[in-house]
């Protein structure tokens, strides 16, 4: 656990469920429950699968018990839980003086398989755009270089190919996304 994060943001719901269900059976370890829940409360979950996995831990029930919860918001429900049940409001407009578009420096690098490559571009996207929107804009601008493919998953679209180079379970390769030197938790 680092700063409350257990694995990554996608694994937090299952990790909290597992720790809650087994707390009587595992030896005490250094684990800061408050920090872990703080990570969950402060994250803006948008994928139904992520919400389904984190909800049982947030309400202190098992996964099966959480399935029968009423979705009606009660005064005793925390604002974080109200936000989870209320869906995802649209991103707010940027405040006055903040540009509506941002510039993203986007690079694709392959040093592992086939012909190695390293391409870089800059794209203009609306502030608050997803990583998928950045990839789409780069592909619109330079389709011969920044083409990509996705496949649908229960977590949303997953990038499986960029510039014709596909991820491979046999080779244990995948596309990893970074912001500077930091691996992205989600797109």
Automatic annotation (TrEMBL):
<dbReference type="InterPro" id="IPR002157">
    <property type="entry name" value="Cbl-bd_prot"/>
</dbReference>
<keyword id="KW-0964">Secreted</keyword>
<dbReference type="GO" id="GO:0005615">
    <property type="term" value="C:extracellular space"/>
</dbReference>
<dbReference type="Pfam" id="PF01122">
    <property type="entry name" value="Cobalamin_bind"/>
</dbReference>
<keyword id="KW-0170">Cobalt</keyword>
<protein>
    <submittedName>
        <fullName>IF factor</fullName>
    </submittedName>
</protein>
<keyword id="KW-0732">Signal</keyword>
<feature type="binding site">
    <location>
        <position position="184"/>
    </location>
    <ligand>
        <name>cyanocob(III)alamin</name>
    </ligand>
</feature>
<keyword id="KW-0171">Cobalt transport</keyword>
<dbReference type="GO" id="GO:0015889">
    <property type="term" value="P:cobalamin transport"/>
</dbReference>
<dbReference type="InterPro" id="IPR051588">
    <property type="entry name" value="Cobalamin_Transport"/>
</dbReference>
<dbReference type="GO" id="GO:0031419">
    <property type="term" value="F:cobalamin binding"/>
</dbReference>
<keyword id="KW-0813">Transport</keyword>
<feature type="binding site">
    <location>
        <position position="8"/>
    </location>
    <ligand>
        <name>cyanocob(III)alamin</name>
    </ligand>
</feature>
<dbReference type="GO" id="GO:0006824">
    <property type="term" value="P:cobalt ion transport"/>
</dbReference>
<feature type="binding site">
    <location>
        <position position="53"/>
    </location>
    <ligand>
        <name>cyanocob(III)alamin</name>
    </ligand>
</feature>
<comment type="similarity">
    <text>Belongs to the eukaryotic cobalamin transport proteins family.</text>
</comment>
<keyword id="KW-0406">Ion transport</keyword>
